[in-house]
Amino acid sequence: MITKELLDILACPLCKTDVRLEGDRIVCTKCGRQYPIRDDIPVMLIDEAELPEEPKRN
Predict the structure, then answer these.
(1) Which of 30, 31, 32, 42 lies at a C-alpha separation of 20 to 30 Å from 55?
(2) Taking residues 21-26, what's their average pLDDT?
(3) Rounded Cα gap, residues 58 and 50, in angstroms
(4) What residues does each domain of the chain span?
(5) What topology does CATH give the domain 4-48?
(6) CA triplet 46, 30, 54: central angle to 5 degrees?
(7) What SS3 state is found at 43?
(8) pLDDT in tens, 36-56
(9) Which long-range contacts (CB under 8 A, 24 or more apart) does 44-53 make?
(10) What is the Cα–Cα distance from 12 to 38, expressed in whole angstroms?
(11) What's the chain's average pLDDT?
């Protein structure tokens, strides 16, 4: 369980901006990188982050 207090002090290691909790991921509000949470511990490593999906174009 990620507490609000922890979210308030976390920042994206790449952008240095705020993050938000989305399901089982911590998501950067600027670049959209998604950091996993393993055993209730956010893994805030750039190499472990997933890039946001780009919208499909027709």
Answers:
(1) 42
(2) 95
(3) 24
(4) 4-48
(5) N-terminal domain of TfIIb (2.20.25)
(6) 80
(7) coil
(8) 999 999 999 999 999 987 666
(9) 44/10, 44/12, 44/13, 45/13, 46/13, 46/14, 49/14, 50/25
(10) 17
(11) 92
